Structures are given as structure tokens and as C-alpha cells.
Amino acid sequence: MSEKKAYTQAFHTGKYEKASGLLGKYDNVRRFWEDQVTAIFLRPALNELVDHKRQRLERVRVLDLGCGSGDGYDLIMGVTTKDPGIYEYITATLTDDMLKEYVGLDVNPDLIQQAEDYYGGDPKMRFIQEDLSNGLPPAISKDEAPFDFYFTSFGTLSHFNTEQCVKIIADICRHAPDCAIFMGDWLGRYSYEWQDLWHHPVDEEYFMDYRISYIYPEEERATADVASFPLKLVCREEVDNIIARASQEAGIEIKSLLFFDRSLLIGRHLDTGDYNKHCPKLRAPINALFESYVRTDLESLLVDFVPRQGFDHLNNFFEMLFMSSNTLVKQTMRMLDEYDSETGKLKFVPEILPFYPKPLQEAIDTVRRVMEGVGWVEWGDVRANVIETVLGYALRKLETDLQPGTGMGHGLVGIFEIRK
Ligand SMILES: C[S@@+](CC[C@H](N)C(=O)[O-])C[C@H]1O[C@@H](n2cnc3c(N)ncnc32)[C@H](O)[C@@H]1O
Question: Does position 247 have pLDDT exceeding 50, yes or no?
């Protein structure tokens, strides 16, 4: 009887469910692409912050605004000081001994409860249910000591209009110590996923009707009662304007450290086509690239980009991005096709033309060298487990190196330093 109870308890924690990298909130793309890319861009600022605190014999306090079920904790603690060499142990930027406290804030009681269930036993972690609609609530601005890192992630700031964002950021400036970091995460205005929405004038706030249809299997989407809510789309100029106004309102300098566009090739709405019926369904095959023992139909990674009249600079950018990703995929397919297992040699070596963008040159060269190095291995499924995974990372590298940080992806993220 106690055995049955133990299994039932384990089941109810949700942690007993079969892990799947191919579907759901924590699919492979979220873990190996979106979280990792965010961490890579965060690395320089977080390295510097941790050094700054260490020199002063102080530790780091983190506030995660719109923390949901506390996912930001793993993302932040997973940031590394560099890409480790083959012999090195991974070095976390913010090691446990340097974290003083992580506080997660969210308006949703169910998500706060879920965060408590996951992390509640950790004495350095606290969660509070509060609303950010009117800026930082007194439970933070009055009752909490300053934080060193004010963190938002995965579009949280798109829940707020411009005035609310200005107020939240101005409050953060007033609450923060000198050299604190703020990371702001919005939805980008010009993702290919929502090409149907590109025409809304940039000098007017625009909230899309965001359908979370991607949680339903494709065959159920048309009939499912899909929840939707408004989310603000922004481009770089709008964020610059919000930051300038917040800085002015608080009378405190905010230095922009960097901007990046996240998820141009893999936004969740590519697969639904809800806001662009021409969208390539890339997330599912890219999840498969990262999944061991699953072979991916590489043809399904090829994109037939459909431009939208009147948006030349957006069309030119996406043309270049998708022609680059298509070239990488096609060269990989050809190399796989012409690999000679007897001799362990490639019968076809892709030509890397001088006018290819540098990230494309590097990506093709990397895939070729990996294929030459491991193609002959007979154990496991070397195509599914090694070559396709490297292709996944090569596509990720293309995206991170070619994105301009202006609002072209699912997410537009800015990292800022507060100077007092
Ligand atoms: C896109 S989710 C991001 C969740 C989480 N940070 C993650 O990485 O998955 C946005 C979060 O903002 C929260 N949120 C929305 N409106 C809010 C408000 N007015 N005050 C506080 N949190 C809010 C939502 O409940 C949700 O958890």
C-alpha cells in the first residue's frame, strides 16, 4: 500500500512524467537553443557583475520579474564564464557560493505554487506573488534590499504597455545599486512568424492577440478552444525610447550593453502558421536534430521564404538568413549522401564561396570537419547522435551571428547597466 502511495505521490509531482525533447514547454529548442543563447549573450555582463561583487566581498542578489515557475534560476545559474575547451570542467559564472539570494516574483498564484514545489526547499530561493502593472510593488521597492540583477525573460515585458514598462524600469533604477544589471525581454515586432502583423505603424503601440495554440497537437488546433491574450510587439527604437524615458524619469543613467534577437528560425509560432500561413514548420525538425536516436528529415529544414511587398529591408534580411540556412542544410545533405563509409572519406567537399557571410562559412566548415572526424564510427547512431546535433548547433550559430538585435526574432532582449 505504501508503495502505491509513493508512486502516486511521485506521479503528482509531475516529475515522473516521461521527458520529451520533441514537444512541450521544455522541448530541446528551449533547452539547447533559447536558454543557451540567452545565457551566451548574458555572459559578459554577468561575468563582470560577479567579479565586481567578489572584489567587494559581497554576493549577488537576483530578482526575477515575471518568474513563472522559476525557470530563470536554472538559466542564470547555467551561464558559464566561457565555452569550455574539451578538457575543461564547465565553470559557472555565478557559482552557488556567490549567490546570496534569488527572489522570483509573479502575478500568477498557480505558477508561484509550481515554483515553490520545484525550488521551495532551497533556503536561498523565495517566491512572492505580486503585480507589476503599477511598477515595482512596495513589497519590493520598500521591503527588499537592492538587487544586483533585475531579470526578465521570454517576453515578460510584452505584458505591459509603454507607460507601465517605463514605470517598472524607472523603479528598478531607483531601487538598484550602482553597476546593477537589468535584462529586458520583449516580443520582436518583425519576426517572420507574424509577418501578417508587420504593417502596424511603428509609431503606435501594437499588442498582438497571442494564441497559445502551439500547446495543442496540429490536428486539434483548428477545433481547440485556444486561450489568447494581448502581448506587445516592439522593435529596437521602441525599446531605446522606453529606456530613455525611464532614465529621465528616475534621473539615473542606464547604459545599453547589448541587444539581441532570439528565435528567428525556431519561434513557437513558426509551426502553427497562425500569423503567417507561409511559415516553415522548423521547430519540430530542429527539436529532432537535438534528439538522440532520432533521424531528421533534413529536407523539412529548407525554407521557401515568401517576401511581403513594401518591406524591402525586412525581406532582404530574411532572404539572406534563410538562403544561408538553406545552403548549410543542403551542403550537409550532400555530404551525408556522398560519405564513403568504406574509406571514411567525403566524396564531395563543399565549396565555401568568399561572398558567403562569415558565419555561414564557419558553419559549413564545422559540419564538414565533424563529418570527416566521426562519419566512420559504427557505435550508436552517429548521424542522429552526433552529426545532426552539430548541424543543430551550426544553425543556432548562424542565427546568433547574423541577427541584428532590432526586433527580427520572436524575442528582442536588451541588457543594461544601471549607473549611479
Ligand atoms: C512569458 S512568461 C515568462 C515566464 C518565465 N520567466 C519563463 O522563463 O518561462 C511571462 C510571465 O509574466 C507573468 N506576468 C504577466 N503579467 C504580470 C504582472 N502584471 N505582474 C507580474 N507578473 C506578470 C506571467 O504570469 C508569466 O509567468
Answer: yes
